[in-house]
Inverse folding.
């Protein structure tokens, strides 16, 4: 009970202090995805004349909306994992002086990113509802399990990475590079059909099969179904998300409980 | 009696890496090579119980493991071996204002700090007015903490921390900060916590505070328990031990280059001492081998606290010039009624050229001095023992003069 309040307070402190003394405040959390979406939309739809995926059954053809449905969840994933990874190092002053359950730090960092993510999502849904399809809001209840699984997935990764980074500072650099690569290997700015239709193979394994080993794929498919196709995600998508979240949490909890005692000695 | 804390065979080892290895590359490279580190035992098989409702003082020289022990008790550090049982709601004050954020207002920080220390929002709401009133920050409470003076931050931190009313409180010397008024108020607050029956563990260098507040004490040395029991007994043992240590340190200074042959701390009757009571007059006796001097010299003495801050500087320049070739000369520096508070101090002695510019010989920490460490029964009444004024109001009666062997008091 008290811990829940503490985690929320730490998260709010982080949010408040990062936008303190800035005129736009939370506005900055909107501007970043808007610019990113704008840039990709310009590059891919105007210059490369990329295939505009058609939302099924929504009939949406806007490449910008297609991007938004993928990039907003992706940016949350990337920002949260990076912040979680360095959460022990950046809170070392606190960790050395007061005992709090260790998991409080990656968790509150994640919640701070998650709150920003929810605000961005809300903005997207409003835009979708007002300007395109009012019935987009009908799918909001199904967004909740997707968000919950996504949250657990990122939490699990953070619980494993944060103590590792306390032991070896290299981890945060590796994470930064890896997430950059991960972005391109996940169908965010392109549809999965681009891969699936080509029927390409690497060492005799269809590329599509390899893609399905990427846990982020399932979350992106889920969000895109709800926010662009405007339909319920397929059961296989939910299964993929659930397995990803469960595996990440399993790894995270085990790694964290093994490493947590050496955190203070090493930061 | 029921114990609030029980330590059994607590050992904490740190690895002293020969080259600090914090990158993955080095870790992988080192997998092949034999890992190179030695183990340092900060705590070595420490076992004792703290009874419920008792006030325990933890004393020991620097590096004896006091802070490590406190961090183990507060679960910040995990013992390498042994176990610690804690019965009751525990709060640790290792630092005031832990987690204060400079950009947030005093009000926001009260809630933040409170929840870090384990209070719920409702509990803080209830105490909010008291916290603000105690810290005397009503007018500033909505300004960001970065605009506060350090004294204001400390007041706010202490105010939040002591509203916790914990069953077990661990305190690490946080009381020895701030001005007189703050120290008096914080001492009062501690006393009211004690009288409310809380179990308290205090780490302090300020031995008069330990003596006035604690009923039992533990003294540590090199991570091991040296003495445990009644506070008078433990402090007495600690003082004796410091005596022994300083005896073994009594170095033959002439071996080390210089003209300062020996240094001694004496009481008014000319007996060697290592500790003095508050305001007790004492003498510094220095033997100078003037034959070793290359030029006329003056003697300078610097008094430092254990944290190496300089409290006083005395030079014999106006009074006494040591000419070369006069054999051994005893010089005595009389310090009468020194306004120094309890604690551990050290005198550094130096021979300087007459103009004071060139250093001819110097002995850091030549004489250690403990004030108020003697644990004889309360000879002087301390009105508010927590308030120790370490300010040097004026130069002590410094009268270095030519003294005839043996040193005799005036």
């Amino acid at each position: 009970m008290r811990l829940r309040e503490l985690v929320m307070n730490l998260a709010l402190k982080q949010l408040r202090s990062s936008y303190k003394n800035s005129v736009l405040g939370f506005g900055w959390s909107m501007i970043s995805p808007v610019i990113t979406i704008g840039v990709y939309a310009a590059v891919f739809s105007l210059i490369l004349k990329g295939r505009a995926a058609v939302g099924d059954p929504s009939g949406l053809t806007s490449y910008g909306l297609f991007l938004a449905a993928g990039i907003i969840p992706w940016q949350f994933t990337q920002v949260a994992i990076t912040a979680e990874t360095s959460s022990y190092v950046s809170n070392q002053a606190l960790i050395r002086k007061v005992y709090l359950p260790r998991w409080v730090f990656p968790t509150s960092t994640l919640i701070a990113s998650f709150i920003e993510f929810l605000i961005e999502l809300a903005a997207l849904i409003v835009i979708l509802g007002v300007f395109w399809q009012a019935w987009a809001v009908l799918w909001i209840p199904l967004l909740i399990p997707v968000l919950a699984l996504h949250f657990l997935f990122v939490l699990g990764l953070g619980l494993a990475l944060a103590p590792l980074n306390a032991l070896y500072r290299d981890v945060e650099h590796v994470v930064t590079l890896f997430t950059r690569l991960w972005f391109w290997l996940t169908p965010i700015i392109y549809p999965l059909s681009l891969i699936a239709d080509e029927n390409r193979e690497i060492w005799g394994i269809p590329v599509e099969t390899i893609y399905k080993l990427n846990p982020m794929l399932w979350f992106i498919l889920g969000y895109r179904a709800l926010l662009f196709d405007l339909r319920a995600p397929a059961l296989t998508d939910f299964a993929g998300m659930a397995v990803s979240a469960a595996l990440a949490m399993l790894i995270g909890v085990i790694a964290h409980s093994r490493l947590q005692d050496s955190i203070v000695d090493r930061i | 009696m029921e114990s609030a804390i029980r330590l059994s065979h607590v050992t904490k080892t740190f690895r002293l890496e020969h080259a600090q290895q914090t990158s993955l590359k080095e870790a992988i490279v080192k997998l092949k090579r034999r890992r190179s580190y030695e183990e340092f035992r900060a705590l070595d098989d420490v076992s004792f119980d703290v009874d419920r409702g008792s006030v325990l003082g933890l004393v020991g020289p620097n590096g004896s493991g006091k802070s490590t022990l406190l961090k183990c008790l507060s679960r910040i550090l995990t013992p390498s071996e042994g176990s610690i049982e804690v019965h009751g709601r525990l709060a640790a004050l290792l630092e005031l204002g832990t987690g204060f954020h400079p950009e947030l207002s005093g009000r926001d920080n009260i809630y933040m700090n409170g929840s870090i220390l384990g209070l719920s929002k409702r509990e803080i709401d209830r105490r909010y007015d008291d916290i603000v009133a105690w810290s005397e920050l009503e007018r500033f409470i909505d300004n960001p903490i970065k605009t506060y003076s350090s004294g204001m931050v400390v007041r706010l931190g202490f105010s939040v921390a002591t509203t916790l009313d914990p069953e077990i409180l661990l305190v690490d010397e946080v009381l020895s900060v701030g001005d007189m008024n703050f120290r008096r108020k914080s001492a009062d607050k501690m006393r009211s916590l004690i009288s409310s029956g809380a179990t308290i563990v205090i780490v302090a260098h300020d031995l008069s505070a330990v003596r006035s507040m604690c009923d039992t004490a533990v003294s540590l040395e090199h991570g091991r328990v040296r003495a445990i029991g009644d506070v008078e007994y433990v402090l007495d043992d600690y003082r004796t031990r410091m005596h022994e240590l300083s005896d073994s340190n009594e170095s033959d200074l002439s071996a080390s280059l210089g003209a300062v042959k020996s240094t001694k701390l004496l009481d008014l009757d000319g007996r060697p001492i290592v500790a003095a009571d508050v305001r007790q007059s004492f003498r510094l006796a220095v033997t100078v081998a003037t034959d070793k001097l290359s030029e006329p010299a003056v003697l300078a003495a610097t008094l430092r606290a254990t944290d190496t801050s300089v409290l006083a500087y005395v030079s014999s320049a106006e009074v006494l010039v040591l000419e070369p070739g006069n054999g051994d000369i005893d010089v005595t520096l009389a310090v009468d009624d020194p306004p120094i508070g309890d604690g551990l101090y050290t005198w550094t002695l130096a021979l300087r050229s007459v103009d004071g510019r060139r250093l001819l010989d110097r002995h850091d920490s030549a004489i250690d001095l403990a004030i108020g460490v003697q644990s004889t029964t309360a000879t002087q009444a301390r009105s508010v023992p927590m308030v120790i004024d370490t300010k040097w109001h004026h130069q002590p009666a410094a009268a270095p003069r030519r003294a005839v062997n043996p040193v005799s008091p005036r």
Chain B has two domains: 3-241, 252-403. Confidence is low (pLDDT under 50) at residues 248-256, 374-410 of chain B.
